[in-house]
Each structure stands twice: as C-alpha cells, then as structure tokens.
Amino acid sequence: MSNNNLIKGSLQTIILKLLEENEKMYGYEITQRVKELTAGEIKITEGALYPALHKLEAEGLLTTEIQQVDNRVRKYYSLTKDGQKEVTSKLSELQGFVENLQRILNPEIKPGFNI
Amino acid sequence: MRQLSEQELDQVKKAISAKELTSAEILLEIYDHYVSHLEGFESSRFEEQINLLDEKWTIAYCKKLEYDLQKSTGKSIRNTQWKIIKSYFSWPRFLFNATILALLTFTVNSFSFKNQILLLFGLPLIYIAGFALYVNFRNKEKLAIIKKILGDKINNVTSIANSKLTVSIVLPLHFYNLFLNVPRMLGWTEGIPDLYLNLFSIIFCYAVILHSLSIYETWKVKFKTELL
After folding, report:
1. Chain A: residue nearest B66 by CA?
2. A3 part of a folded domain
C-alpha cells in the first residue's frame, strides 16, 4: 500500500503519540513499532522520520539522550513538558481532520458524528 | 536478533564512510539504524540488506539531513539562550541586572581609561575565550567515544552542536573588533565626548556579561542532551 503522501501530514502526531506511550524511543524502534502496530500497512521511511524527529527536537517538543548500547551509541528521543502538552492538541487536530474527511467521503454522515 | 560480526561491522562503517559525513550526531544515528536493522536478519541476507539500506540512505539524503540539523541546532541554541536572557529581566533576577549596571557605572567613573578597558572589556573577553576552550575540551572527550566506535574508517568527526555553540560563545570577540578596534584604527574615536564613550563602554560590557552568563547556562542545559 503506497500511503506515504497520506502519512506525511500526520507523521509528527504519530511520533508524539508513540513517545507518549513509550517513555523513550530511538529512530529505528519507531519505524518498527509503527510497522508492528499497523501489521506492515504503514511503513515510515527514514527519509521522513529523521527530519521530523530533528524538527520536533529543534521546536523543543522532544529531548534527546545519548546512551552507549552494546557496540554503539544510541540516540533516544522523549517528550519534553511542551511535547506532552502538544500531544493532546495534535491528536484532537488529527481526529477532527479524520472526521471531516469521513464526511467528505461519506456525505450521508451528519455533522456531530463521532468516530 | 543476532550480534553482527566484526567483519560485518567493518562493512557497515565502510558503507557509512562512503556518505562523506562529518557530523557525529548524524553518523551515530545512521550507524545505529544500520546495525539495528541488520541485526534482525540472518548473516546470509546481510549483503542484500546493507544494499537496501544504502539505497535508502543516499549521499544526497544524508547531506540534506546534516544541513538541516545544522540549521535547527543553531536555531535551538539561539532560542535557549534567548529564553535565558529574558529570564534575567524577571523578578528577582532583575536585581542582579541592576547590580551589574551599577557596578559598571561605578567602574567607568572610578578608574583610569586603561584600567577601565581592562576591566570592562578584557575580563569578559578573557572569560569567553577560556570558556570556549573548556567547551571544546569537554566536547573532545565525548567525541572520543564516538570516534572509537566508528573506528578509523570515518575521519574528521565533529559535533554540529559544538560548532554552533562555539560560534555563539565567541560572538562578542567579533563585536569587540568591529566596535572597538575598527573605529580606533580609523580614528573615529577622536572628538567623541568622554560621556558617550563611557556610556557605550557600559552598554557593550553589559551586553558581553549578559551573553557570557546566558551562553554558560545554555551550555549547561544542552550539555545534558547534545554532543557538547
């Protein structure tokens, strides 16, 4: 399923939501978690993930921690206080968008319908 | 999940070195991504998977990642420092500001011109130069770990965060040249009343002190999370 363009706009929300549930994660782990949760239907590409992570970090929504793991150094990302606040607003924003999209795709659904 | 052999790790390092990257932040992230991915496959599929990774992590993509990180790191350092500077003007920290200004005014009015220059400009600038050296020394310690992991296949490893912070730290040294040495060389200082020169000295020195303190606090904040 080629849904990269559809995911692009919601990638930041996906990252923030995953980090809300899992205290800290590293880049590769995020790609694998999304793959696992969606049974391989959604694949986050490296080309989109790392720029998004760096952008969220620069905006102060994520903080990083470098740890030595086995034979390498790993960069873990976690939410800052601002990031924790942002998760709620990003999620309701996305929820609203999905509801509106649903109305466009299925005009029989009346306003006020909740998914 | 399996551990990669030394030979396989060498091949990963070789693949990453071909991307001609220098920033430790990006290198460590790519290296971890490659190794994490390859550990999930049997050794018989190693070649196929590393080629697949190379197709995704193209040189152009890696360079773009490095360039974007340079921009966002600089912005993040400036934002953190600005937040800290703003906090100096809130109560009760504002008292500290007033004390500095009072001390500077007292210094300007109490000492000879040479001592004034030494105290107002010399000391903060010496502090800044010393602090820049200290920051770079601490950074070398952190980078040594990464260099050791990446081995001799990847050379000239530097930290983006360190480069950006060093540029910020030494900024007043450039202002010192621009506002003090250049006018002096061009003879623009002659004819300016002492009152204005003193006022300018106070403002400049106050700005340098604010910068020195806030950049130190920025370093303390960033040191915990960045490669500084």
Report:
1. A51
2. no
pLDDT, tens digit (0-9, with 9 covering 90-100), for A56-87: 998 889 999 989 888 789 999 999 999 999 99
Residue A6 lies in a domain: no
Instruction: Give Cα B193 distance to the centre of its chain.
Output: 38
Q: For A89-103, what is each residue's pLDDT tens digit?
A: 999 999 998 889 888
Torsion of CA B199, B205, B210, B214, to 10 degrees: 160
Asked if B176 has any chain A CB less than 8 Å from its own CB, the reply is: no
B129 has a chain A CB within 8 A of its CB? no
Euclidean distance between CA atoms B45 and A15, whole angstroms = 30
Q: What type of residue is B141?
A: E
Q: Which of A102, B119, B177 has its CA nearest to residue A114?
A: A102
Residue numbers of the domain that contains A36: 11-105
CA dist B209 → B109, B128, B205 (Å): 19, 10, 6
Domain contains A111: no
| Residue B127 in this model has a pLDDT that exceeds 60 | yes
Q: Does residue A89 fall inside a structural domain?
A: yes
Element (H, E) at A65: strand A62-69
Structure tokens at B197: 């020169």
Q: How much of chain A is helix, strand and coil, in % rounded to 5?
A: 55, 15, 25
Contact A28, B37 (CB under 8 A): yes
Q: Which residue in this structure is represented by tokens 């008292």? A: B95
CATH number of the domain encompassing residue A47: 1.10.10.10
Q: Which phi and psi angles does B107 have, rounded to 5°?
A: -60, -45
Closest CA to A42 of A69, A8, A70, A71: A8
Q: Residue A41 has what DSSP assignment?
A: S
- Total count of residues recorded for chain A: 115
In B8-37, the residues whose Cβ lies within 8 Å of chain A are 9, 25, 28-29, 31-33, 35-37
Q: Chain A residue closest to B37 (CA)?
A: A28
Count of domains forming chain A: 1
- pTM (2 decimals)? 0.84
